[in-house]
Predict the 3D structure of the following.
Amino acid sequence: MMNLKWMKFSICGRIQEDINILINGFDIDIQRKKDKNINLRVYPNLDIRASVPENMEMSSIKRMIISKEEWLNERLKKYEEQIRLTKRKYISGEDHYLNGKRYILKVVDSNTPSIKKENAKSLVMYVRKSSSIENKEKLMNSFYKEQLSLKINKYLPELESIIKVKSNGYSIRKMKNKWGSCNREMKTLIFNVDLAQKKDAEIKYVIIHELLHFIEKNHNEHFRELMEFYCPKWEQYHSSLNKILNDNKMC
Ligand SMILES: [Zn+2]
């Protein structure tokens, strides 16, 4: 099944077709480019886009897509899980993660908003009954921010002295597609607030990754060697972190 989605004129005036086709149940946006490379991507909103050389036969495109079926299903599953996890309601009984452990949320009516670890299994959110999901989410994020900064304040100075680099500080934010990033000129770091949900080893891995960018800008062989040296299990942490946040480029 094939349907024409839109036609557009490229800069040079040549008609360039962008079409949507259904292959093995996958709705794929095909973009033809002058580039010889084939690039297949799944986006967080579950869109699938394939950019292909402008003269590639449709039968070859179909074969390529079918050969990637398993990979596509895996990616889609990850994004579906991400969508499911981001739709939190902040109600009692819901699962929330902190430092690699699962906690059950208990929501208690209170005029003084706060979140506390009640024991090894539960987190208590004190909040007004009438509070909106958005406000509860803000409260959870500020709790995560506070928890993550405790970890970073503990590990960053240690790791800086091991690697022999020094940052000029860091900030914590909500980021969609990155666990961390750095500004090499300002020597500053940014960490994703969701790291608070992860284990110490994974938090340390992200700190090391960003600090190593002060030495090596690109993710090249030199960067890999540095990573192997300072964090031998980095590949394990990288894949476990990217189970949910997909297509992460650390920086
Ligand atoms: Zn990086």
About this structure: The chain has a mean pLDDT of 86. The longest strand covers residues 15-23. Helices lie at 58-67, 69-86, 133-163, 200-212, 221-230, 234-241.
